[in-house]
Amino acid sequence: MEEDGSGLKPMDAEQLREQAHKMVDFIADYYKTIENFPVLSQVEPGYLGKLLPDSAPTYPTTLEHVLNDVQHKILPGVTHWQSPNYFAYFPSNSSIAGFLGEMLSAGINIVGFSWITSPAATELESIVLDWLAKALFLPQDFLSNGKGGGVIQGTASEAVLVVLLAARDKILRTVGRSALPKLVTYASDHVHSSLLKACQIGGLDPELCRLLKTDSSTNFALSPDVLSEAISNDIASGLIPFFLCANVGTTSSTAVDPLPALAKVTKTNNIWLHVDAAYAGSACICPEYRHFIDGVEEADSFNMNAHKWFLTNFDCSLLWVKDRSALIQSLSTNPEFLKNKASEGNMVIDYKDWQIPLGRRFRSLKLWMVLRLYGLEGLRAHIRNHIALAASFEELVVQDARFKVVTPRTFSLVCFRLLPPPNSEDNGNKLNHDLLDLVNSTGSVFITHTVLSGEYILRLAVGAPLTEVRHVNAAWQILQEKATALLENL
Questions:
Q1: Which residue in 436, 441, 486, 472 sits closest to 456, CA to CA?
Q2: In this predicted model, what pLDDT tens digit does every residue of 5-59 receive, in sequence order?
Q3: Which of 58, 159, 330, 399 could form a disulfide with 303 if both were Cys (CB 3.0 to 4.6 A apart)?
Q4: Which of 444, 443, 449 is nearest to 431 (CA)?
């Protein structure tokens, strides 16, 4: 039987002080020793069921016992996203400021669905999203003092869903609800899978989600001509084009769709233009990268994830819209128990009407703390450092004739592959797949892959807060060693 030793009250200030100090020490020690863990968890499926009891404890135990179990049973099953040797997917930044903001949010623990439930939560969210909109030089229409404004969603998947629903309902108010089966959505074939999921949730025909082919001639960006042709064909078939999701920094290769040219097409055809800059949007606070979102002034909505590359702990996805009424008309409910004077008088924003759930956390606190404790210049330095590290990795790849950089590096993602021998049957796809497995099974580094024009490609994304040049060099050394071993065995 576990020891009945905790004596914890649900909430007591002095007990909180004592226990939270122990937890902060545990987390600080975790960061101190994070490089000792395999980056990619090496456990087998079902491992944890063998280590934990099959029913909940009847009596309490101590925090020390729980933390001991975390150390020996939980952490081996964790893939360490904050490790300096984590180069997979895209980063998901932690920072001291983000952590402190998360802690404060958890401590106050409000549920801020409407203004009256905690006025500061709503007003701080509007203010910090306006700050960031100005730092990104977003159009005036996206600021909260006009018809639009910003809102914090959980993820970019939620952001694209809510604007898709707003766009759907806006067009259906014109053409009638019976036209729902005729609505067509567009994006490049490298758009995030959340778009297709949003179509499924929104009752749209998944067959009419047009993922338009891209290739290396445009560095895998969406061609305006290809879009125009698809729209013309759909209109000729009696369908109704209504939504384009353009990307600034695709998941596969950080391709940047040409926003100004695409905006001309969407404007002509009365199509909602959503810009998904989930990863790369953070870089656009640097003047030298701002041009990647030129054309955003023509967009109806814009999204970036502060929790990816902006030192703000997950989750914190920032969405700006030009016309908040489109969102509200799709997502608003007004039950009797939520009615109050401020809301009824249209004097305030109720963010419950800008999102899927009713409940929402005080997420603006951590974004506010990140902006204040690092400042825009500190955040720019953080992003520039990662881009410089990625550039140094790209240079190492270029210098080794056995490898090839597949598509030009734009931000801090390098797409590359090991070149196969001339007689390779599958153009080296198995070779690169095997290289990825060998590298990741070392536990010393974690990278991921994509497929571009039928080729299996390795991706190395620099973005973990603790990553230094030595980690990038070590990753490259492992890649070279494993490549040598593979090529010798061919």
A1: 436
A2: 568 888 899 999 999 999 999 999 999 999 999 999 999 999 999 999 999 999 9
A3: 159
A4: 449
Q: 108: exposed, middle or buried (C-beta count within 10 Å: 0-12, 13-18, 19+)? A: middle
Q: Is 48 helix (H, G, I), strand (E, B) or coil?
A: helix
Closest CA to 463 of 381, 386, 403: 386
| The pLDDT of residue 113 | 85
Percent of the chain residues past pLDDT 90, beyond the cut: 86
CATH of the domain at 160: 3.40.640.10
The reply to whether 182 falls in a domain is yes
- Own/partner pairs, 102-105, CB within 8 angstroms, 24+ separation: 102/313, 102/366, 104/365, 104/366, 104/369, 105/361, 105/362, 105/363, 105/365, 105/366
Other Cβ atoms within 10 Å of 302 Cβ, number: 31
pLDDT in tens, 237-288: 999 999 999 999 999 999 999 999 999 999 999 999 999 999 999 999 999 9
Domain-located, residue 130: yes
CB 130 within 8 A of CB 144: yes
In Å, how far from its chain's centre is CA 209? 22
Long-range contacts of 203-212 (CB under 8 A, 24+ apart): 204/164, 204/168, 204/180, 205/181, 208/182, 208/183, 208/184, 208/234, 208/239, 209/184, 209/185, 210/184, 210/185, 210/186, 210/234, 211/187, 212/186, 212/187, 212/188
Which of 93, 135, 95, 90 lies closest to 412, judged by CA? 90
Length of the chain: 490
Is position 190 within any domain?
A: yes
Number of domains in the chain: 1
Measuring CA to CA, which residue among 238, 309, 248, 318 is closest to residue 276? 248
User: What is the extent of the structural domain holding 158?
Assistant: 100-372
**Residue 54 within a domain:** no
